[in-house]
Amino acid sequence: MKPISIVLLILLTAVGCSNNSKTSQEILENIFNSNYEHSIISKGDNLPNFDRRKDSLDLFLVALHERIAPEIFQERVHWSDENLKEKILFLRDKGWLTVDDKGLRPTVFIATDQQGKELFQYGRSLAEKIALSIEETLPSIKEKFKTKGLAEDYDFDSMSFLILSNVLLDNWQIMQMEAAYLKKENRPERHGKFYYASIEENVNSGIEPFGIYGNQFGKINDTTYLSIYGNNRIVVNERLRNDEEFKDSILNVALELTPALYNFFEEIAEDYRPVLLKLLYEQTDYSRKIYEETGYSDEIAYEEFFIWWYHFIYTDATNILAERKQLTIPAEGNYYYK
Predict the structure, then answer these.
(1) How far is CA 52 from CA 41, 149, 243, 261, in A?
(2) Strands (E), the chain
(3) pLDDT exceeds cutoff 80 at 284
(4) β-strands 189-190, 193-194: how paired?
(5) Which of the four, 151, 294, 299, 326, has the lowest number of CB atoms within 10 Å?
(6) In whole angstroms, how large is the CA radius of gyration of the chain?
(7) Please, which contacts does 239-248 make with residues 24 or more away whose CB atoms are closer than 8 Å?
(8) Per-residue pLDDT averaged across 139-150, rounded?
(9) What is the pLDDT of residue 251?
(10) Which tens digit of pLDDT belongs to each residue from 182-220?
(11) Which sequence spans correspond to the domains of the chain?
(12) Helix (H, G, I), strand (E, B) or coil at 276
């Protein structure tokens, strides 16, 4: 590896050449005036061990993603040359930045609001195919729900968001999909931990960036763990930390995940998995084309790009199913289970 001073010299003469100074300044000011959310896909204690927002480190990565020359960002935040080198080395050592002859490039998934909208558009055809495949398998899922006696105690329609989105597409599938489709047993290693990371612009008030659905699991008190599936977890998490009455109300309405329900979820996820994988395999050439044409191939591995793009795709598929009255999304955007 070249000494960092040499790499920086290359960067200062080459990076950001696609924007003139005025345009770069405008883009940079927009970055500082925008809200960015951080997401992690991990298991156990595989988490970042540093504050990504401290000293505007995340905004620095966003600026590099937007091809802003590092010296322009440096001037904006009043970093000395030594500070800039320290930040670059720190992020490189954490596995969030690459430094080589091609320049400085973030190695985590980053999406501006415009890029997120484009990713939805690029994934629409696959989302529609996924939604159609779920519609086709829905009768057999409902029949299994009845034959296992679950219809006597539970209402399928009220659980349809959890079942058709989280179970079939997200939490009950994601790790198996990584292994079977992406051929990855481990997530990217960063500073001895294994996780996917993203920085996404959020123009929405309270809900997740781009309205993407996701699953969250955590301990809510000394004896109870709570899972939340949805796209309105930001405000809810704040209230869960500070409002005991609200916390009690959520625990009272949360579905109890009994062994019978869990086994049913496992079975239908396993039944649907070959269908989902077939659709993903059929779209691989197209997916790799999008990976290249969007420029993400300059920053992150295909696996990291796809795992985040897949969140856009299954969110869109979920919304399509809702539009077709095949599932019901809770009014507040979240489903709770424990």
Answers:
(1) 15, 48, 27, 38
(2) 36-41, 97-100, 103-106, 109-111, 189-190, 193-194, 196-201, 214-219, 225-230, 334-337
(3) yes
(4) antiparallel
(5) 151
(6) 22
(7) 247/220, 247/221
(8) 96
(9) 93
(10) 998 889 999 999 999 999 999 987 799 999 999 999 888
(11) 4-107, 119-189+210-337
(12) helix
